[in-house]
Amino acid sequence: MAVINKDTEAAPLYLTDFKPTSKLVVPETTVSTPRFPVIDAHNHLSLPGFGGWDKRPVAELLDMLDRANVRVYVDLDGGWGEDILETHLDHFKAAAPDRFRVFGGVDWTKWEELGDKFPEWAADRLRQQAARGAEGLKIWKMLGLTVKDHKGELVAVDDPRLDPIWAVAGELKLPITIHIADPIAFFDPVDSTNERWEELHNHVDWQFPSPPFPSFMTVVNGLANAVSRHPEATWVGAHVGCYSENLEWVSAVFDHCPNFYIDISERIGELGRQPYSARRFFLKYADRILFGTDRPVDEFIYPTYYRFLETDDEYFNYGIEDIPRQGRWRIYGLYLPDDVLEKVYYKNAERVMLGIR
């Protein structure tokens, strides 16, 4: 008879120390080279933790991208300011024009100073950014959560005063990559039921409880309204349309708005834990999904994405850490057919980001 050590059994185990090792014996496929060339439609080059490529030789970055078969890299850092846009155009775009697309952005801080003139000013600045070389517009989650007008009132994602900005993007054929909400758990109470408890305790600034912030559905429905109201513009909903936990909601926006696309950046953790639903989603909307990582260029992240899309591997880690920071679970591969992989890897982005028909 086995003897149970009651003292050991009763000893508390902190969640941070719980790192179970799976005993499953299942295939483990390494996919170093994707089935097709890749356009990374959502990434950064100088954000903290992304490798500091603005201070390193471009040739070193290109070598890493070549090894991963990433042919074009869409850099969204210009969304943080025109000074960054200028720097990246000079450092990356000038060095390898065919390998980089650099997006511009909106300086929301000017609203207080400019008042009612702000929207037209921002639209004009977008024209000037495009003339300088910006090839898209990046909108970050400040819009809808923290951006305020000159009266100190929160600006909704679908605020009609923003129409001139979206209209110029449509006129100039600049795709709008928009990230206006994080995982829905970030908006929930951070209690024992929150599946992102560890992540939110490590990053308290990622919590958006309502109140004082708008509800999650208010924000994402505002995105859907803006996309619907501006069919002349091409919209890319970052991170699976900002609602990767609910593919039915994303599908409904797809069905209603033919000008709406998504990228999968930083959401294979969500997609890979619902592999049946995700695979059906990819097969049905193969023309609307763009590859993207939103992760530092390294030897781990691209093969992990390729493994997720190409193989039927089961229950594998999607993060660099033993316990992925985005959720304490494992994911499953989608085993997508070649015609879908080709569209997701590069053909859709060629059309949406590069204007190649």
Structure description:
The chain has 357 residues and is an alpha/beta fold. The protein has one domain: TIM Barrel (Alpha-Beta Barrel). Helices cover 36% and strands 8% of the residues. It has 14 helices and eight strands. The strands form two sheets. It has a five-stranded parallel β-sheet. β1, α2 and β2 form a beta-alpha-beta unit. α5 runs parallel beside α6. The longest helix is centred in the middle third of the chain and has 15 residues. The protein starts with 5 loop residues before the first helix and ends in a 5-residue tail after the last helix.
What would the keywords be for this entry?
357 residues, alpha/beta, 36% helix, 8% strand, globular
If strands are numbered along the chain, what order do they take across the biggest sheet? 4-5-6-7-8
Low-confidence stretches: none
Judged by helices, strands and strand pairing, the structural class is: alpha/beta
SSE order, one letter for each helix or strand: HEHEHEHHEHEHHEHHEHHEHH
Number of domains: 1
CATH class: Alpha Beta
Largest sheet properties? 5 strands, parallel
